[in-house]
Amino acid sequence: MQVEEIKSLFLKHKETSLSHRYITNKHIEPLLNNLREHVIIDVIGKSVLNNPIYGLKVGKGKKRILLWSQMHGNESTTTKALFDLLNTFFGKHNGLKSVLEACTLYIIPILNPDGAAAYTRINANKVDLNRDAQNLSQPESNVLRKVFESFKPHFCYNLHGQRTIFSAGNVNKSATVSFLAPAQDKACTITPNRKRAMEVIAVMNNALQEVIPNQIGVYDDAFNINCVGDTFQNENIPTILFEAGHYENDYEREVTREFIYISYISSLNYIANSTVKGDNYRPYLKIPENEKRFFDIIIRHAKVPGDSGEEINDIAIQYQEKLIDNKIEFIPKIEKIENLDAFHGHKEINANGFEVLDNNNQLVKINYENVFVIINNEKIALIPK
């Protein structure tokens, strides 16, 4: 299936009731009710706070694929794209009949419903579920583990979202989508199992290069058996980490949502219609590794106090995502005041040697939070449009 065809399907089947960054059980439950005609839906467990965790089974094929999203409650882009995908499966003339005939998908749309409701990475016990694969100390971790053992997947999709700080290599290009075929041993051996995951990632990278060239990265594959992906890979199930990242001015992650959708369909089509042996893994090795090269805003050439009087330096600002009245607000916070020549800003402001002042006309400092600054008597908004 060509990328332009996939983009057309996205426009037809995008689930319009899901938008922005705050996605919870309350948002998806009406959609689940609408899908019951086509999908087997069960409550497969409960969270720490006794909220239901839903499992969806779709397709009738022999190739089994397990997908879970919002293991980190504040990473919702991949969840939105899952419902876009489900809408597509049951739409007319979608070209995906072969996927549902060849594959059976088991989808956990929100593994961490408590974290989703609170908009936090962790669960209600303040545990990062993606570091609980061995201890299995949390109910949500046990739900995933039981599904893994009973469903016996041939592939796993571990669906996440990443911060705006990442570049696709040491370049001025945001890592809009990132992947990883996790290591399965401390030596990070490129095993036959990893090769199969790498081959699928290479297919997705090839599709995405058509729409976001040079904006796809991979993560460092240092082995951590406590991580779910590393554990499943260690048990010889090809596992793929998906990370939905930043696209220009897309703080709602609605543009990136489409790129994740493209990734889903291109990879599922490939798995459905190919025998994935891992022979074509080498293009994966050419994808640049993510680096932390971005801030949300950099104010360049600002007059600031220095050790020997006033000097010219740069000011880095990062948004803090805060849940306010059931909506995510982006609060600018000054992280650094130093030379930032090695970094890029998603937005850059030139202070032209003037002082940068706060709302009290005082010089800004590290940890300053406000929606604007004053430069040369001009009030400059910092929040995303």
UniProtKB/TrEMBL annotation:
<keyword id="KW-0645">Protease</keyword>
<dbReference type="InterPro" id="IPR000834">
    <property type="entry name" value="Peptidase_M14"/>
</dbReference>
<protein>
    <submittedName>
        <fullName>M14 family metallopeptidase</fullName>
    </submittedName>
</protein>
<keyword id="KW-0378">Hydrolase</keyword>
<dbReference type="Pfam" id="PF00246">
    <property type="entry name" value="Peptidase_M14"/>
</dbReference>
<keyword id="KW-0862">Zinc</keyword>
<feature type="domain" description="Peptidase M14">
    <location>
        <begin position="14"/>
        <end position="323"/>
    </location>
</feature>
<comment type="similarity">
    <text>Belongs to the peptidase M14 family.</text>
</comment>
<keyword id="KW-0482">Metalloprotease</keyword>
